[in-house]
Specification:
It is a single chain. The protein is mainly alpha-helical. The protein folds into 2 domains: 79 residues, no CATH class; 130 residues, Hypothetical protein, domain 2 (Endonuclease III, domain 1, Orthogonal Bundle), CATH 1.10.340.30. The chain is 66% helix and 0% strand. The chain has 14 helices and no strands. Helix 4 packs across helix 5, helix 4 packs across helix 11 and helix 12 crosses helix 14. The longest helix is centred in the middle third of the chain and has 21 residues. The two termini are 27 Å apart.
């Protein structure tokens, strides 16, 4: 089954009350030029921040992030790939940080991924900018495979933080997809995620809107807070 965009728009418009309120509530992705202008260290920082947010209160992680920026030299990937096990153990003694060994170990691994992709594409931001949004789940799969600690919601969450257009697999989005018969359960398989991608692609074709806006609109059909 599919989701009809005219129904989605009218439903959300009624809920928000006016076109202006609706549009002001919607997220905006970065343009390709804006993505390419972001330096690699910022992408590694956002990636690491999203990894640390997993399972923790985001506000708590964000409040600690200046200490992370200081401890890890601004997340320059050329420096982060040199982090040894001894360096990580030293950081485990830093009371200003969130001392999670597995997540700290992700930093040199993901720094290497960022460097490799950056060298291949002329910048990690250029790589993100060139990736087609009609296969955004393909980008999730690639980053999960080549990265570390990027499973679950972490990869789409990182991309949303970075400004790359993506939909999210929140509880509300999943509930909306199930209600419309796109999937029948929590999407844990590649097939189910590609079914969600196909539904979003159709909505995008019908509306011209970015995936992040369609994702938010779908969530609003379920979340009435």
């Amino acid at each position: 089954m599919s989701i009809r965009y005219p129904w989605l728009y009218e439903y959300v418009l009624r809920r928000k009350g006016s076109i202006q309120q609706l549009e002001d509530s919607l997220p905006q992705p970065l343009s390709a030029a804006e993505l390419m202008a972001v330096p690699d260290d910022r992408y590694l920082s956002m990636m690491t921040q999203r990894i640390f947010r997993a399972g923790l209160r985001h506000a708590m992680v964000d409040a600690r992030w200046p200490a992370f920026e200081d401890a890890f030299w601004g997340f320059d990937p050329t420096k982060m790939v040199l982090l040894s096990a001894e360096h990580i153990e030293q950081h485990m003694q830093n009371m200003a940080l969130i001392r999670h060994l597995g997540k700290l170990r992700s930093i040199p691994h993901n720094a290497q991924m960022v460097l490799d992709i950056s060298r291949e594409y002329g910048g990690f931001g250029r790589f993100l900018a060139q990736w087609p949004v009609d296969d955004i789940v393909g980008l999730w799969f690639l980053l999960r495979k080549r990265g570390y600690q990027l499973g679950g919601y972490s990869t789409p969450g990182f991309l949303r933080m970075a400004g790359k257009d993506t939909f999210l697999i929140t509880t509300d989005v999943v509930a909306a997809m199930i209600a419309h018969g796109v999937i029948d359960r929590q999407p844990t398989s590649q097939g189910a995620l590609r079914d969600m991608q196909a539904a979003f692609n159709q909505l995008q074709q019908d509306s011209g809107r970015p995936l992040c806006q369609l994702s938010a609109m779908l969530a609003w059909t379920v979340n009435h807070d």
